[in-house]
Design brief:
The protein has a single domain, classed as NAD(P)-binding Rossmann-like Domain (Rossmann fold, 3-Layer(aba) Sandwich), CATH 3.40.50.720. It has seven helices and eleven strands. The chain has a nine-stranded mixed β-sheet, sandwiched between helices. It has a two-stranded parallel sheet with strand order 7-9. Helix 1 packs across helix 6, helix 3 crosses helix 4 and helix 4 runs parallel beside helix 5. It binds NADP nicotinamide-adenine-dinucleotide phosphate (NAP). NADP nicotinamide-adenine-dinucleotide phosphate binds next to helix 1, helix 4 and strand 7.
Length: about 220
């Protein structure tokens, strides 16, 4: 059992991840910014931790995450505009990475974006900015000596999970249910020898535990 600090815990992937981790015997600690989210997160098995990513600096966030064994960043602006994307997916990720380092937490999972998203369409300015910010966030994390894993899901859906995915360092673009993204992240937490790897993730045929297992190092 270990304590996992989740940034974006009240979100659509975050809530599913909280529940999965609690069911697997971990202690999810759920950063959320709205007071009314605390009860839902508690009901899902988390310890709610109130805090707004835009109002926290790295030392303050490090204090909130102290003692956790891993950090998962699955926060996002959710289409709220370029300034919010820059603040959450961009600077928010950097603050969280800095905080993990200050708190001495090595394991860091980041939910990023699939590089083929939007291919074949003329991207809006906002989408272009989103993809650029996501890529810079990946670079920021990769440049640390943290024990990181970057997961790049395809287009997210709210379809029920199948427990099966396709996951590798390069795969064709596709959709993936948020349920399966959360299950995949929980499995990565439980397989610590999967590290320093960027993983593309879509729906597929491989049971999630096997899909993670074949990405182990060594
Ligand atoms: N949509 C796609 O197809 C797609 C594909 C690939 C990757 N992604 C990425 O997947 C990730 C999660 O997706 P999702 O569907 O779970 O998104 P979501 O439901 O919008 O969840 C994002 C969470 O981030 C939180 N957040 C935003 N600003 C915050 C702040 N200032 N302080 C603390 N928390 C804050 C939100 O809080 P509130 O609950 O308070 O709003 C929300 O809970 C995002 O990073 C997204 O970029 C999405």
């Amino acid at each position: 059992m270990s304590s996992v600090f989740i940034v974006g815990a009240a979100g659509n992937i975050g809530r599913r991840l909280v529940e999965r981790l609690a069911n697997r015997g971990h202690e999810p600690r759920a950063l959320h910014r709205k007071p009314e989210q605390a009860d839902t997160l508690k009901d899902l098995g988390a310890t709610p931790v109130a805090g707004d990513l835009t109002a926290l600096d790295a030392p303050a966030l490090a204090q909130l995450m102290a003692g956790s064994k891993a950090v998962v960043f699955t926060a996002g602006a959710g289409g709220a505009g370029m300034d919010v994307t820059n603040a959450i997916d961009g600077r928010g990720l950097e603050t969280t990475v800095d905080a993990a380092q200050l708190a001495g937490i090595k394991r860091f999972l980041l939910v990023s974006a699939f590089p083929d998203a939007g291919r074949g369409k003329t991207p809006s300015e906002g989408f272009e900015n989103y993809m650029a910010v996501k890529k810079r966030a990946d670079v920021y994390l990769v440049d640390t000596d943290l024990d990181w894993v970057i997961v790049r899901p395809g287009t997210l859906s709210d379809e029920p999970g199948t427990g099966h995915v396709r996951a590798d360092v390069a795969i064709p673009y596709g959709n993936v249910p948020r349920d399966d993204v959360a299950a995949f992240l929980a499995e990565v937490i439980d397989q610590p020898t999967v590290n320093r790897i960027i993983i593309e993730l879509t729906e597929g045929e491989t049971p999630i535990a096997n899909a993670v297992d074949r990405l182990q190092r060594g």
